[in-house]
Amino acid sequence: MALVANVVSSEVWEQNKKYTVYKIVVKYDDQNWTIHRRYNEFSKLCDGLKKLFPHLHLKLPGKKLFGNNFSTDFIRSRRQGLDNLVQRMLSDSQVLNVPDVRSFFQLDRSLKNSIDDDDEHDETMTITSNSSEKMINLGPSEKQHVKPSDFEFLRTIGKGSFGKVYSARHKKEDTIYAIKVLNKKMILKRNEKNHIMSERNVLLKNLNHPFLVGLYYSFQTKDKLYFVLDYVNGGELFFHLSKERVFTEPRARFYAAEITSAIGYLHSQGIIYRDLKPENILLDSDGHIILTDFGLCKEGLRERETTNTFCGTPEYLAPEVLRKEAYDRCVDWWCLGAVLFEMLNSLPPFYSRDNAEMYDNILHKPVRFRANMSSAARNILESLLQKDKRKRLGAIDDADEIKRHEFFKPINWQDLEAKSIPPPFNPNVVRFFFSVVH
Q: Which family does it belong to (predicted)?
């Protein structure tokens, strides 16, 4: 079977210093998985293949000699260049016989010992030896009798600041889960225990809602924490949107409705999500959306209570966050507007290649709509992307106010939350198509 690989997105990670990694979705031998690679890894592979396959005329996107290597424009341009490089590499089937290529795309990798391999990435962390042996109180979610050997770890499907996420099969149950494996050294070194426990609390509550990734249970060893999560295998909304550019209005409405239901539930639990974006929205095997990555959630806020932490993703930041004002749950409805706009237009509403210009657009410029957009879609976007949070749709009656909008008139909310409405798109997943945000 031919190898299919696409460089679909990029992320900025930090370990002593910032660096950019590029996410690659790989399809091979009836399986799909996600890997992350740095620019220098592409460069090394490219140099080797140039000597073996000169006829391919492989070209690596250049380095930036001046300016900001983390600018949105530069990273997007480099991602596209790296994707072009990958497509050129794979145009000759003989490339797959090269060991370095098979290693780069993890074509032969077994995950039998990969959890232990994580330690090689943590060698820069120095901490007293007993710190890693401290047992962290995981509360009622912890099952003390569970151990890593109860699972067959299949693929690396995500990576974050504190560890990795794997698809794994429980040997006795024969059930596939996503397991988030976190390094205790790093958590304790960075004093992030409360942050991790807050994310665990949100994940536990999520089991009560159909459109949120939930935590089944957790366990730990002397070095690592394990969160056993829903396995979601339809790919990121970002992946599908990048392939199709725009969605039809009925399809975008369906996804926006399920997102609204999920966000409304989080708000009812006193949780602000704060990081809604296509990369954090997954599709399940049937095509329903599932929100993931609750690392930026704020717990314990009711109705109009506020917080002021500056966090989020640049393209989706609400004006009040940019102004460093106290903000409330309305920031999530701004993000819903931005995501809905992107589904209908292919780019976020105030996007610019220059972050400073984009921030100015968010704060001061009106939304621009394409000519053939329906009046209902235009109106809900104007209402969600209202720069004054007090006038924003959802400011008074939260999700119920949004559900009543004309744009959602075709939606029967009871049927939607019962998953009785057939999704407009079936991802036709194979066994291991999964992506999760750390």
A: Belongs to the protein kinase superfamily. AGC Ser/Thr protein kinase family.
Type of residue numbered 44: K
Token pair in block for residue 5: 């690989």
Which residue type is seen at 77?
S
Q: pLDDT at position 29, please? A: 66
Q: What is the pLDDT of residues 349-391, one digit of tens each?
A: 999 988 899 999 999 999 999 889 999 999 999 999 999 999 9
Based on its alpha-carbon atoms, the radius of gyration of the chain, rounded to whole angstroms, reads: 22
CA dihedral 198, 202, 205, 206 (to 10 degrees): -160
Phi, psi of 281 (to 5 degrees): -115, 115
Catalytic residue among 275, 293, 332, 398: 275
Burial of 104 (0-12, 13-18, 19+ CB in 10 A): buried
CA distance 27 to 1: 9
Residues of the chain short of pLDDT 50, as ranges, are 65, 110-114, 117, 119-132, 430-438
Does 143 belong to an annotated binding site? no
Q: What is the pLDDT of residue 198?
A: 83
Q: Answer yes or no: 122 catalytic.
A: no
CB 322 within 8 A of CB 314: no
Among 411, 299, 278, which Cα is nearest to 341's?
278
Indicate the Cα dihedral angle 185, 222, 160, 308, nearest 10°: -60
pLDDT of residue 396: 95
The pTM score is 0.70
- How far apart are the C-alpha atoms of 222 and 136, rounded to whole Å? 9
The 10s digit of each residue's pLDDT in 315-358 is 999 999 999 999 999 999 999 999 999 999 999 999 998 889 99
